[in-house]
């Protein structure tokens, strides 16, 4: 029974990592852009939500109504004004620029909010659980996060395969030059894609801020887990990212059950093992 | 209808200069053949026309207005469509989605999805398949249909016969002839000189980034073309 509980815990933890990773996967899948500032953007969303809650007195979930449009606009403008200039055959320029952006976000948050750890509260939902039989209980909030990850992926799939802009995302991702020849404004398409990715990051950031404490320098850890989930699942494949997140979550949960100090290390070791056996992850989208 | 004119058109890939002051006029309603050996600058010329390679504004004129240096999507929205070399269908899109991408230029006109299916019925049967799973000839049909769905006034065709069976090439050129009879301006870049000259009203022969011969197709002897082609 302990093992079933451990596996369930790992599965739900995987939902957290998947939610962290979806935005990263989306940006890479459409633009081949590796966003080093991804983790810091998640933390930034947490802080923006924190500020909204403090100033307007809204609940954290209601703060999404402000955070998400704000993050869409941030992503759109960031891509149009800055990141589009870095795109090309070389992956390095956008990595360097987003690395710089990560430093700017971290220091901006330190200036604005100090180095204190923060956390948002959702009240009893955070500690509520559902009993599965006599020995196993599943936390309601982890379930909400896992369900959010699934719904987010389904929504993105509907966007990609059921809308005109989704068709433009895929065409531009396949061959940006040919897409331009079809009259597609690829710079605008990239800006919308980053806007959408930032919306997902906003969701991840707010849910993270309810689940755990965060501070201005906690972004890189989120980036590391997101990277591992994306790479395990296969770069640019969103369902693969969910699998990557679950794999990472299960590895950490099992590692933690063996020895609590081994929890994080177990995730990293499984990541390295998969990298050796399948260097391009389980379901790579990128052909070359 | 659009007349496209280049005046002293130059183009570079980094330090390498590919075009050296080309003066070319693609007249409205006519078929122009651009021929030349590999590396003569034919595809670079097409890329410059469509905005994939940046040029100075006054190097390209569309209907008399400067159009050089504009983004490709702006040029395409002015009624220029391209069937690129190698077809370049989008692998993650189905046949129908590949075709529909052509409508993103948002131009109205006689071409619709149904009409493309009328011209190429085989595409309707295979509309749910991935575009890149089709045979080479069928992929070329998708590429042509995709370009037509932008309702262009000028259709640029870059090496459309490359790697295709003769019977398929015949069919494609029959379609091109029908499009011409509807008043569409057509530019054909071809390595098959005889075929290109046969369908063209005017011919430009490129060599090493320069125009080595030009004139009305009916006035140019194949011998002259051969000499211009090889720089004899």
TrEMBL record, chain A:
InterPro entries: ABC_transp_permease (IPR001851), BCAA_transport_permease (IPR052157). This is Branched-chain amino acid ABC transporter permease. One of its GO terms (biological process) is amino acid transport. The keyword Transmembrane helix applies. The keyword Transport applies. GO terms for molecular function: transmembrane transporter activity. PANTHER family: AMINO ACID ABC TRANSPORTER PERMEASE PROTEIN, BRANCHED-CHAIN AMINO ACID TRANSPORT SYSTEM PERMEASE PROTEIN LIVH. The chain crosses the membrane at residues 12-34, 41-58, 64-83, 95-114, 140-161, 189-210, 230-250, 262-283. It is a multi-pass membrane protein. Keywords: Amino-acid transport, Cell membrane, Membrane, Transmembrane, Transmembrane helix, Transport. Belongs to the binding-protein-dependent transport system permease family. LivHM subfamily. Pfam families: BPD_transp_2 (PF02653).
TrEMBL record, chain B:
Transmembrane segments: none annotated. InterPro entries: AAA+_ATPase, ABC_transporter-like_ATP-bd, ABC_transporter-like_CS, BCAA_Transport_ATP-bd_LivF. One of its GO terms (biological process) is L-amino acid transport. It comes from the Bacteria. It holds the Pfam family ABC_tran. PROSITE patterns: ABC_TRANSPORTER_1, ABC_TRANSPORTER_2. Residues 4-230 form the ABC transporter domain. GO terms for molecular function: ATP binding; ATP hydrolysis activity; branched-chain amino acid transmembrane transporter activity. Keywords: Amino-acid transport, ATP-binding, Nucleotide-binding, Transport. The keyword Transport applies. Belongs to the ABC transporter superfamily. This is ABC transporter ATP-binding protein.
